[in-house]
Amino acid sequence: MSDVIAEVRGRAGLLTLNRPKALNALTLGMIRELAQALRTWRDDDRVEFVAIRGQGREGRFGAFSAGGDLRFFHQAVLAGNPELEDFFTEEYALNHLVHTFPKPYAVFMDGIVMGGGMGISGHGRTGATMRIATERTKMAMPETNIGLFPDVGGGWFLARCPGHLGEYLALTGHVIGGSDAVAAGLADAVVPSTGLPALWDAIAEGASAPDWPRAPQEESPLRSHQAAIDRFFALPTVSDIVAALESEGSEFARETAALLRKRSPLMLHVTLEHLRRARSMTLADDLRMERDIVRRCFHLRPGAASETFEGIRALVVDKDHSPRWNPVRIEEVTPAMVEPFFDSPWPAHAHPLRDLI
């Protein structure tokens, strides 16, 4: 069976990510199937509404998507596989297609929603996207843990979180639940997971978002730290943020500093610069910038020398969880190391995402 199931029921186009053993991690083939379905339904007057979910290991829900296929990235680097370039170009084009899709789009964000899973969540188009979290939602942009940065439009949507929550989530990769996702503007409602099958079936019958039942809004643990997050993560550099955290005695500050010390120092600096630039950009411009950065992630230091290759090796392949970051410490990263990531390898007329508007 296909890794993406696309079907039309009633007035709805329904998409199911069907790679449950891999937590629906996106492959290039899946990206292409999703894009083809959305382009077809965009122009089909019979389809008035689109919904997407992930097939869980034990049922129709339970996992949305853990992100991109990291093992493919690792193997592609070793083999010099040009499909690595295609993956990011086509994934970012898909993110833009989802964001600009002209019809209502519902995302069932049950279980794990990370990385590439966030990229196909719609980025919160007001009035057009319904992002449904549950009590089982585990959401994060954890890319700094693998020597990468929050891509798939992450600079754009994280920069638009309240205050400086975006910088906090981007740098730490902190995993949040449904109530935190709503508070951060990354989900629209929390629905009990037991109600998802009925909601899915109701979509084909034309149910509109306001008719759907929602769980009572729980207190957001993340928002209880909003003042501290804004104070620390508004600071100008990663070194300043960590120094301030380590000079304060609160449990939150200690835990956050310890978390940052485990991430790639270089990519922490790249990520903060990325987010600060993206705050004033359109999504299309941010995706073009991200395409530049990800190209640099794999080619500034080719092959096994890249931070991204090393991070994936340590977390996913060898699973020793002991990445050999270069530089080793946050304080050793200089602006001269960060700037090349933002130097586009393509002239504007030849950029692989030049047609996004």
From TrEMBL:
Protein keywords: Hydrolase
Organism domain of life: Bacteria
Record flagged with keyword rRNA-binding: no
Molecular function, one GO term: 3-hydroxyisobutyryl-CoA hydrolase activity
InterPro entries in UniProt: ClpP/crotonase-like_dom_sf, ECH_dom, HIBYL-CoA-H
Keyword Hydrolase included in the entry's annotation: yes
Domain Enoyl-CoA hydratase/isomerase as annotated: residue spans: 13-342
GO BP, sorted A to Z: L-valine catabolic process
Protein name: 3-hydroxyisobutyryl-CoA hydrolase
Organism name: Ramlibacter tataouinensis
Species classification: Bacteria, Pseudomonadati, Pseudomonadota, Betaproteobacteria, Burkholderiales
